[in-house]
C-alpha cells in the first residue's frame, strides 16, 4: 500500500478574496480523506496590493523577474500564508510536525499560455522556514515547459473525488466557478478532460465594485433586480475563445469588464451572471459526451441568479446541476484540497497534468519541493 500523508493545501485564487486552507490525508492516488478547512480573507488594503502586483506584472518577460513592488508584495503574501497556516494549526489543535507537506499555490499575477509564461508569486522557501513544514510550490511551470496550458491542475483531484463518489453515475462534470471558471469531465471509461470554461466571478466582482462599491454580488441580490442585456451578453459569448479548435487557459484580464455606458448596475450584474452560466455550457460543448450531471464548486455557486441560469441552460440539454455540498463535498475548500493532493503527488513524482487536461504533450509531474 502507498504511503498516506497529511498535507495542507493553500489556495489564493484569481478572485483575490483571501487564502483557503484545507487539510487532506492522501496517498496522492485513490485515498482521499478530507479534513478541516479555514478561509482567511484579505483586507481591502492588501487586495489593492495584489491588484498593483497584477498591474506591475504585465511587463514581466522572464518568470523569475520581480519588478517594482513585486518582491515586497511576494514577501507580504507569503507571510500572510504563514499566519494562515499557524491559525489553521492552532484552530485544529495540530502540530507542524504532524504535517508532511504544504501545497502552496501562491498568487497568479500573470498567465500567458501562448508565450509559455505563467507567474505565481509566493516564496516557498520562506513559507517552509517560517512554518517548519516542507513546501511544494510552483506547480504549474513544468506543465508549460512541456507544452501544456499551465492550468487547470485540479482535474486529477476531481477524478480522485469522482472515484470515491458513492453511486457515482459517470460521466460527471465538476465545475469550479471562481474568478475564472473551469471544468473537469470524468467519463464512464475513466477518461479525464479538463479546461478553463470562461469568465466566472471576476467580471461580476469588477462590475459591482466599480458601480456599487461592494466586492461581490452577495447571493446575486443585485443581479436579481436586473434583466439580461442580450447585446452585452453576446459580446462575451461570441468570443473566439468558445469556438477555437484548441482549449486555452485564461488570465484574469482576458475578458475585460463592461464600461459604465453598457448597462445600469443591476442589468450589468444580471447580464454578467448569465454570461458566467452560459459560458460553462458553451464550453462544455467541447467535451467528448454532453454531461448529464454538473457538480458545482467555487464561490459562484453562492450567486443564486447565476445558479438558476446554469440550471436552466443545463436542463435544456437534459443535464442536472447540483452544488458540491449536495454531492457530499465542500465547494469552498475543493481547490485548497486539490493543492494538498497535488503536493503529495509532486513529492512522489506522479503526474499532475495530462494531455486531456492542459494539453501537455505527455503526463508530467511538477513543482519545487523545499524542506524547512
Ligand atoms: N455569498 C456569495 N454570493 C455570491 N458570490 C459569492 C459569494 N461568496 C463568494 N462569491 C464569489 O466567489 C468569489 C470567490 O470564489 P472562489 O474563492 O471560488 O474564487 P477563487 O478561488 O479566488 O478563483 P479561481 O478559482 O478562479 O482561482 C468571490 O470573488 C465572489 O465573486
Ligand atoms: C493560471 C491560474 O492561476 N489559473 C487558475 C484560474 O482560476 C480558475 C482557472 O483559472 C484555473 O485554470 C486555475 O486554477 C485552478 C485552481 C486550477 O489550476 O485547476
UniProtKB/TrEMBL annotation:
- Please give the superkingdom of this protein's source: Bacteria
Tell me which residues bind ATP.
13-20
Q: Which pathway does the record list?
A: Amino-sugar metabolism; 1,6-anhydro-N-acetylmuramate degradation; Cell wall biogenesis; peptidoglycan recycling
Tell me which Gene Ontology terms the entry assigns under biological process: 1,6-anhydro-N-acetyl-beta-muramic acid catabolic process; amino sugar metabolic process; peptidoglycan turnover
Q: Does the keyword NADP apply?
A: no
The record ties this protein, via InterPro entries, to:
Anhydro_N_Ac-Mur_kinase, ATPase_NBD
Alphabetized Pfam families for the sequence: AnmK
Keyword annotations of the record: ATP-binding, Carbohydrate metabolism, Kinase, Nucleotide-binding, Transferase
Q: Write down the top EC class of this protein.
A: transferase
Q: Which parts of the chain span the membrane according to its record?
A: none
What does the record give as the reaction this protein catalyses?
A: 1,6-anhydro-N-acetyl-beta-muramate + ATP + H2O = N-acetyl-D-muramate 6-phosphate + ADP + H(+)
Task: Report the EC number(s), separated by commas if there are several.
Answer: 2.7.1.170
Q: Per UniProt, what is one GO molecular function of this protein?
A: kinase activity
What function is annotated for this protein?
Catalyzes the specific phosphorylation of 1,6-anhydro-N-acetylmuramic acid (anhMurNAc) with the simultaneous cleavage of the 1,6-anhydro ring, generating MurNAc-6-P. Is required for the utilization of anhMurNAc either imported from the medium or derived from its own cell wall murein, and thus plays a role in cell wall recycling.
Please state which protein family the record places this protein in: Belongs to the anhydro-N-acetylmuramic acid kinase family.
Supply the name of the protein.
Anhydro-N-acetylmuramic acid kinase
Give the species this sequence originates from: Rhizobium favelukesii
Amino acid at each position: 500500500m502507498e504511503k498516506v500523508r497529511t498535507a495542507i493545501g493553500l489556495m489564493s485564487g484569481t478572485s483575490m478574496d483571501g487564502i483557503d486552507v484545507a487539510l487532506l490525508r492522501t496517498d496522492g492516488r485513490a485515498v482521499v480523506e478530507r479534513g478541516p478547512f479555514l478561509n482567511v480573507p484579505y483586507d481591502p488594503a492588501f487586495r489593492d496590493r495584489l491588484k498593483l502586483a497584477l498591474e506591475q506584472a504585465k511587463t514581466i518577460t522572464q518568470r523569475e523577474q520581480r519588478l517594482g513592488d513585486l518582491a515586497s508584495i511576494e514577501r507580504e503574501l507569503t507571510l500572510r500564508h504563514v499566519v494562515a497556516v499557524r491559525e489553521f494549526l492552532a484552530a485544529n489543535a495540530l502540530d507542524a510536525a504532524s504535517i508532511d507537506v504544504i501545497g502552496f499555490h501562491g498568487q497568479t499575477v500573470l498567465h500567458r499560455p501562448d508565450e509559455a509564461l505563467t507567474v505565481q508569486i509566493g516564496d516557498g522557501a520562506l513559507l517552509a522556514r517560517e512554518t517548519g513544514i516542507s513546501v511544494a510550490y510552483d506547480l504549474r511551470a513544468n506543465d508549460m515547459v512541456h507544452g501544456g496550458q499551465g492550468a487547470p491542475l485540479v482535474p486529477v483531484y476531481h477524478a480522485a473525488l469522482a472515484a470515491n463518489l458513492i453511486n457515482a453515475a459517470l460521466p460527471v462534470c465538476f465545475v469550479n466557478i471562481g474568478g475564472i471558471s473551469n471544468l473537469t469531465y470524468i467519463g464512464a471509461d475513466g477518461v479525464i478532460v479538463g479546461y478553463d470554461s470562461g469568465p466566472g466571478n471576476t467580471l461580476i466582482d469588477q462590475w459591482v465594485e466599480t458601480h456599487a462599491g461592494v466586492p461581490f454580488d452577495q447571493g446575486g441580490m443585485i443581479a436579481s433586480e436586473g434583466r439580461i442585456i442580450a447585446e452585452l451578453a453576446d459580446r462575451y459569448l461570441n468570443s473566439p475563445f468558445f469556438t477555437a479548435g484548441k482549449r486555452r487557459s485564461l488570465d484574469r484580464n482576458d475578458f475585460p469588464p463592461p464600461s459604465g455606458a453598457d448597462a445600469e448596475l443591476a442589468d450589468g450584474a444580471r447580464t454578467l451572471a448569465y454570461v458566467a452560466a452560459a459560458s460553462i455550457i458553451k464550453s462544455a460543448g467541447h467535451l467528448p459526451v454532453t454531461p448529464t450531471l454538473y457538480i458545482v464548486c467555487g464561490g459562484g455557486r453562492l450567486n443564486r441568479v447565476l445558479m438558476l441560469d446554469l440550471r436552466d441552460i443545463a436542463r435544456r440539454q437534459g443535464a442536472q446541476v447540483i452544488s458540491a455540498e449536495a454531492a457530499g463535498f465542500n465547494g469552498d475548500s475543493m481547490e485548497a484540497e486539490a493543492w494538498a493532493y497535488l503536493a503529495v503527488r509532486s513529492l512522489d513524482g506522479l503526474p499532475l497534468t495530462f494531455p486531456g487536461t492542459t494539453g501537455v504533450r505527455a503526463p508530467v509531474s511538477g513543482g519545487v519541493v523545499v524542506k524547512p
